[in-house]
Amino acid sequence: MNPNATQVAIVYHSGYGHTARQAEAVARGAAGVEGVESLLISVDDIDQHWDTLENVDGIVFGAPTYMGSASAQFKGFMDATSRNVFAKGGKWANKVAAGFTNSASRSGDKLATLQQIAIFAAQHGMHWVNLGLPPGHNNSKSTEDSLNRHGFFLGAAAQSNADESADVVPPLADLRTAEHLGARVAEVVQQLAAGRQALALTQKAA
Fold it and tell me: Where does the signal sequence lie (predicted)?
């Protein structure tokens, strides 16, 4: 990665490949913002990336929703941050954070997973970015192709039919919603960086 670029990492777990496609969409959205690079990190490989995560500007967290919460593998990553990040003096404090999740059911209690991830980010002193979209498919004139078709606000939600492979689902609307989240996070990261730089110059001049 270019050390001079704004950097956004996407840290995720995917059990069957569906959430991986959602993560890839978030990464595309972030990298689509000029001056931003994105990095995909599976929690399966997290031990190789602790140092990298200390240096990125924002982290978007994603996991499938299993039985009303983030997957056990993602929860294992969350627990590992207690010794690799939290205990080392808040290495992620003031970074930007956001979240996404996927399940087979329309609701599937995905909100519980997004809340779990948001609280996790707050424990690390991170700045949470919401989805920033109105509800999509909520009236007779809207369609399944609408962004945020599931009507989530806290983060990006996707639905993948349990009997279809990751080659088919999540649907394009859900992937475009994930791309929107990635771009929104990248823009907020850049805005915060510019504001911090301007503040530093003002303080130096004073």
Answer: none
User: Domain ranges in the chain?
Assistant: 6-205
- Mean local confidence (pLDDT), 72-82: 98
CATH architecture of 6-205: 3-Layer(aba) Sandwich (3.40)
Phi, psi (deg, nearest 5) at residue 203 = -65, -35
CB 43 within 8 A of CB 76: yes
Instruction: Give the chain's mean pLDDT.
Output: 95
The whole-model pTM stands at 0.95
Residues 6+ apart with CB under 8 A from 27: 8, 10, 38, 39, 40, 182
Confidence category of residue 103, pLDDT binned at 50, 70, 90: very high
